[in-house]
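Pasting as-is:
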Amino acid sequence: MDAANSQVYPWQQTVWDTLTGRFPQVGHGLLFYGKKGCGKHAFAQQFLAWILCLNKTPAGACGECSSCQWLKSDTHPNCVYITTDEDNKKQNAKIKIEKIRDLLPFVQQTVDGWRVIVIEPAEALNIASANALLKTLEEPGDRVVIILLADHFLKLPATIRSRLQRFAMDRISPNQSELYLQEHLPENLHSKIPLLMNLSSYMPLQAIALSELDWLNRRAEFVKDWLRLVQQRSMPLQFATKWNKELNFSDLLQMFEYLLSDIICVKLNQVVKNSDLDFTVLAEQYSLQKLFAIYEDLQQSKLKVDQNVQTNLIVDQLSIQLMNVT
């Protein structure tokens, strides 16, 4: 984990005070969960640094002791970070059982001080690795804290969830989110704060990440081109070629997913996230069934990238599908 990014955000202060105030009576299995952009990763890093710190204060780790220095250099002997394999970063990658079994010597050894295990993303535990983790959670050894990080805690097996203390990191009020963005976004982007809050589901860090992406300022142009494609029923490959050049593939897919979701919302009389765009005419071109079919194909496209299918071919196919509305 990246020690440089460790911190406690304003909306996490209550959880921080609870954990540090109760410690060491906090239980040995902790789950920090919440939507992307809520800062759970940074919080976990700050908390594990605090647990391991030799001169901790209520505010945080000292940053100077040998333990803090080891963490900064990523060489701490009492800290283990488990994630999916580096060579297997695909969407549905799993944490293999061997990684959990390899924890046993670490958990059972007798050492000075605390030991911390971080598992992220916890949703990547498969049935076998989750079952192996159960044994460690039930008999963790002395002064061991196991921290799991997840976007969606309900995706974890019930047997794992029942053995963890759960802390929601995304309980952020619109007011907290707006205040944070006003303080951390450049002034020329302040007019976009309502839009960014919509797109990020009020997660401030996700909003900041979105503000830095090229596609944010290209959405209206894309919708205009999309409408022309549908109404003229011609030149889908020209449309695909243009947008393959204009945006990188992951940005293009992310933007398209937001826009497609909003068109579905229009059909269902729900509130749209891209509040500055008008989808009325575009939504009239499609049936709800067709939109859901396109959405399903979009999700399949993400998997095709993992299988090394050329991205320009995926955009070509998508463009043809958008044109053929009947």
